[in-house]
Amino acid sequence: MKIGMGYDVHKLSDNRKLIIGGVDIPFNKGLDGHSDADVLIHAIMDSILGPMGLGDIGNLFPDTDNKYKDIDSMVLLKEVNNKLKQSQLKVANVDCVILAEKPKMSPHIKEMAQNISQVLDINQSQISIKATTTEGLGFVGREEGIAAQAVSLLFLNE
Ligand SMILES: Nc1ccn([C@@H]2O[C@H](COP(=O)(O)O)[C@@H](O)[C@H]2O)c(=O)n1
Ligand SMILES: C[C@@]1(CO)OP(=O)(O)OP(=O)(O)OC[C@H]1O
């Protein structure tokens, strides 16, 4: 068994879509980044790459490479899953939390879990996504950005 963690933050900006867990969430702001800035998918990818010894998404998908400009992070997750399939490791479960003051994530959690389990070829029961505000405190509380954390447990498929 190997455990991995991932953490990511993106800034909230005008004139950007809010894409989290592959869901286009209606909101007056969106997350800014080189890619689509899907903060949840980025945290999940890092939590899988860590135990595989592959560093982080910045190593794999550098933001200096134009081919990743505005890329759908689900495409990057598929690439991470391809690397997982080439290894002897499989996902036991992924547990995540989204830190956002607004908007409400709860109406979108099921669709996020569907999207992620489909790309990772796992059952929906193997992925858990939660959300919390930070009670008005810090950059999340001031609605300057959204953060996500993920923990993945991988096992050796012998
Ligand atoms: N962006 C968010 C934040 C929270 N939720 C849900 O609301 C519950 C209460 O949040 P607190 O931060 O006040 O503890 C939380 O447990 C989530 O279910 C949400 O959907 N979206
Ligand atoms: C995904 C990449 C690549 O497009 O871009 P961003 O959307 O800026 O995301 P970040 O979490 O800063 O790090 C990884 C980047 O290389």
From TrEMBL:
UniProt site positions, description: Transition state stabilizer: H34, T133
Any one GO BP annotation for this protein: terpenoid biosynthetic process
Cofactor binding: number and manner: Binds 1 divalent metal cation per subunit.
Family stated for the protein in its record: Belongs to the IspF family.
Keyword Metal-binding: yes
Residues in 2-C-methyl-D-erythritol 2,4-cyclodiphosphate synthase domain copies: 1-154
Binding residues annotated for a divalent metal cation, in chain numbering: D8, H10, H42
InterPro entries named in the record: MECDP_synthase, MECDP_synthase_CS, MECDP_synthase_sf
Keywords, in A-Z order: Isoprene biosynthesis, Lyase, Metal-binding
Transmembrane domains' residue ranges: none
Pathway in which this enzyme or protein is active: Isoprenoid biosynthesis; isopentenyl diphosphate biosynthesis via DXP pathway; isopentenyl diphosphate from 1-deoxy-D-xylulose 5-phosphate: step 4/6
Protein name per its UniProtKB record: 2-C-methyl-D-erythritol 2,4-cyclodiphosphate synthase
Record function comment: Involved in the biosynthesis of isopentenyl diphosphate (IPP) and dimethylallyl diphosphate (DMAPP), two major building blocks of isoprenoid compounds. Catalyzes the conversion of 4-diphosphocytidyl-2-C-methyl-D-erythritol 2-phosphate (CDP-ME2P) to 2-C-methyl-D-erythritol 2,4-cyclodiphosphate (ME-CPP) with a corresponding release of cytidine 5-monophosphate (CMP).
Any one Gene Ontology molecular-function term assigned to this protein's record: metal ion binding
Binding residues annotated for 4-CDP-2-C-methyl-D-erythritol 2-phosphate, in chain numbering: 8-10, 34-35, 56-58, 61-65, 132-135, 139, 142
SUPFAM superfamilies hit by this protein: IpsF-like (SSF69765)
UniProt-listed Gene3D superfamilies: 2-C-methyl-D-erythritol 2,4-cyclodiphosphate synthase
Species this protein is from: Proteinivorax tanatarense
Quaternary organization: Homotrimer.
Catalytic reaction list: 4-CDP-2-C-methyl-D-erythritol 2-phosphate = 2-C-methyl-D-erythritol 2,4-cyclic diphosphate + CMP
Named cofactor requirement(s): a divalent metal cation
Alphabetical list of NCBIfam families matching this protein: ispF
Catalytic activity, EC: 4.6.1.12
Pfam family, one: YgbB
